[in-house]
Amino acid sequence: MTAVLWALALALIAIGVVGTVLPALPGAVLVFGGIALAAWIDGFARISGLTLGVLAVLTLLAWGVDFVAGALGAKRAGASTWALVGAALGTLAGVFTGLWGLLFMPLAGAAIGEYVAQRDLHRAGRVGVATWIGMLLGTAAKVAIVFAMVGVFVAALVF
């Protein structure tokens, strides 16, 4: 039974790492869940409650970055609600269109949403790019946080 639980913990961590770039999966939360399960399986011998507390803070930070980064880029450019909705829908559509879709569909979605709201092509392009840059920076920050979490996990197991 222990082997099955370890496999589940590692699967949660792996799916969580993938989930940091896929919008449908709560990446950092899944990674934390896998690490918490691993700590529990091990009786908190190698992964202490303090370590889990630090990882919980990192999880909350990654979750917060997800919301704040795109919104800051959009706010800086004066984006409308339609631009944010368009970026979210573009991100969702990007999941089904491969890597290039994941990278560029949020840009297109934000620009289209802003164009629908304002009917100004120049503004729509500016807002689309600003929203997209915010989302990319947010994703980069989430990836860095998740890899730090995995690094702490591996270090706790090895050392």
What does this protein look like?
The chain is mostly helical. The protein has one domain. The protein is 85% helix and 0% strand. It has six helices and no strands. Helix 2 (27-41) runs antiparallel to helix 3 (49-76) and helix 4 packs antiparallel against helix 5. The chain starts with a helix and ends with a helix. The model has no long low-confidence stretch (mean pLDDT 88).
What is the N-to-C succession of helices and strands? HHHHHH
Please state roughly what percent of the residues sit in beta strands, choosing from under 5%, 5-15%, 15-25%, 25-35%, 35-45% or over 45%: under 5%
Count structural domains.
1
Helix content: over 70%
Q: Please report the distance between the alpha carbons of the first and last residues.
A: 25 Å
pLDDT average, as an integer? 88
How would you classify the helix and strand content by structural class?
mainly alpha
Largest sheet: none
